[in-house]
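The methods section describes the discrete structure representation at length, but only in general terms. What matters is that the chain and its backbone geometry are given together, residue for residue. Nothing conveys this as quickly as seeing an actual entry. For illustration, here is how one protein appears when written out as sequence plus structure tokens:
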Amino acid sequence: MKELQLKDAKARFSQVVDEAVAGETSVITRHGRRQAVVMGWEEYERLSKVPSLGWLLANSPLEDEDLVERRPARALGENPF
């Protein structure tokens, strides 16, 4: 992944898009701060189909007996000794 200043990305946008299609992702910066990403459509599609952690947890096949028994976490400010 490479970083490009916005003015450089604008000047050679066709090349940036061609590189994205070929698998090279570019991060566009403005005033030294990361602002946008240019990536190929196939990479975007792949990333957009990754399930969220919430979905994975909600759809987990685990049962209560599959989980390890854990002690409750100590309260903040509680002396561990």
Observations:
- The helical segments are 6-11, 13-21, 41-48, 53-58.
